[in-house]
Amino acid sequence: MKRARTTTISPKSPPHPPPPPTPPQKLHSRRVPLQWAPLNLPQSELYLPLTLPTGQTFRWKQTGPLQYTGAVGPHLISLKHHHDHDGAVYYHIHRTPSDESAAMCALLDFLNSHVSLADLWSDFSASDPRFAEVARHLTGARVLRQHPLECLVQFLCSSNNNIARITKMVDHVSRLGHPLGSVEGFDFHQFPSLERLALVTEQQLREAGFGYRAKYITGTVDALRAKPGGGEEWLASLRKLDLEVVIDSLCTLPGVGPKVAACVALFSLDQHHAIPVDTHVWQIATRDLLPDLAGARLTPKLCSRVADAFVSKYGQYAGWAQTLLFIADLPSQKSLLPSRDGNIKKNKPGKKKTTQIASW
């Protein structure tokens, strides 16, 4: 994966512009072997290619075979699968401002490690033979628990966009944050604070290629800063509320509609039964859950019906089930799954199978 080119964002015409951040430290430029430690999560509980590059986050980079690197708060961490240990996940902490235990705590929280995929998959499979078949071939797809502000800004960038441009925009915004280091040619930063984001103007974002999304990002930043007690605290408080209230609250922010709100709710606000409904999910629903709606046009009312159908089928963790079914419907993953006649599709000779990144 090539690093996206970025354009430097300058602040909102302050009397004295803040000094540029310290250039990121070039980590392991001499190819010093990394010291890896087991994460105590088997591949069946966490498979990185089905979790990190599948549209939940756009801030993790592939830095080696089955290896990904990203920032979790102020911690810079790499994860990889170890072939000599049945594909178990190992980690390396490149940089942390505190001790390793704090970085590990943040990482496990980010990975929702307390949720057992084995238990969920067993429950889902018991109620849905199609899910049971998919889960046999695509294991380890976890739903992440991201920082709410980081997740929100990423999905504001994703509106009517493609993966390359989303990644470029997210990289651009990320560079406003504190530099954490460079791994395999990729620079990593802590995601910028709300105060740092507030220094950026709509015009500067437009000049950087954000288009109409620029006004949504700056408008949302302004709206969050006006929240009593602070915008980041307000976002975190949504974790304790009912999903309907969470969706309605997020939709008061500029540029946030029901789909973006559901993505933020599912991937950062502990709303495990949130269902982001787009045309892709609509196709899955009308094929497998609501065949009587096949051929109908997707409307806001039908979006609610789709979400209800997933929750009725899969329960309080319906968002996790829908995430796997979404990934399974990608062209790159269909080759690993049995077709409706029970045969597993084979890749055509001479074509290399790649993991396709998804976008909600």
Automatic annotation (TrEMBL):
<feature type="compositionally biased region" description="Basic residues">
    <location>
        <begin position="345"/>
        <end position="354"/>
    </location>
</feature>
<dbReference type="GO" id="GO:0140078">
    <property type="term" value="F:class I DNA-(apurinic or apyrimidinic site) endonuclease activity"/>
</dbReference>
<dbReference type="GO" id="GO:0006285">
    <property type="term" value="P:base-excision repair, AP site formation"/>
</dbReference>
<keyword id="KW-0234">DNA repair</keyword>
<keyword id="KW-0511">Multifunctional enzyme</keyword>
<protein>
    <recommendedName>
        <fullName>DNA-(apurinic or apyrimidinic site) lyase</fullName>
        <ecNumber>4.2.99.18</ecNumber>
    </recommendedName>
</protein>
<feature type="compositionally biased region" description="Pro residues">
    <location>
        <begin position="12"/>
        <end position="24"/>
    </location>
</feature>
<keyword id="KW-0456">Lyase</keyword>
<dbReference type="GO" id="GO:0006289">
    <property type="term" value="P:nucleotide-excision repair"/>
</dbReference>
<dbReference type="InterPro" id="IPR011257">
    <property type="entry name" value="DNA_glycosylase"/>
</dbReference>
<dbReference type="Pfam" id="PF00730">
    <property type="entry name" value="HhH-GPD"/>
</dbReference>
<dbReference type="InterPro" id="IPR003265">
    <property type="entry name" value="HhH-GPD_domain"/>
</dbReference>
<dbReference type="GO" id="GO:0034039">
    <property type="term" value="F:8-oxo-7,8-dihydroguanine DNA N-glycosylase activity"/>
</dbReference>
<feature type="compositionally biased region" description="Low complexity">
    <location>
        <begin position="1"/>
        <end position="11"/>
    </location>
</feature>
<keyword id="KW-0378">Hydrolase</keyword>
<keyword id="KW-0539">Nucleus</keyword>
<keyword id="KW-0326">Glycosidase</keyword>
<comment type="similarity">
    <text>Belongs to the type-1 OGG1 family.</text>
</comment>
<dbReference type="GO" id="GO:0005634">
    <property type="term" value="C:nucleus"/>
</dbReference>
<feature type="region of interest" description="Disordered">
    <location>
        <begin position="1"/>
        <end position="29"/>
    </location>
</feature>
<keyword id="KW-0227">DNA damage</keyword>
<dbReference type="InterPro" id="IPR023170">
    <property type="entry name" value="HhH_base_excis_C"/>
</dbReference>
<dbReference type="Pfam" id="PF07934">
    <property type="entry name" value="OGG_N"/>
</dbReference>
<dbReference type="InterPro" id="IPR012904">
    <property type="entry name" value="OGG_N"/>
</dbReference>
<feature type="domain" description="HhH-GPD">
    <location>
        <begin position="157"/>
        <end position="323"/>
    </location>
</feature>
<dbReference type="GO" id="GO:0003684">
    <property type="term" value="F:damaged DNA binding"/>
</dbReference>
<dbReference type="InterPro" id="IPR052054">
    <property type="entry name" value="Oxidative_DNA_repair_enzyme"/>
</dbReference>
<feature type="region of interest" description="Disordered">
    <location>
        <begin position="338"/>
        <end position="360"/>
    </location>
</feature>
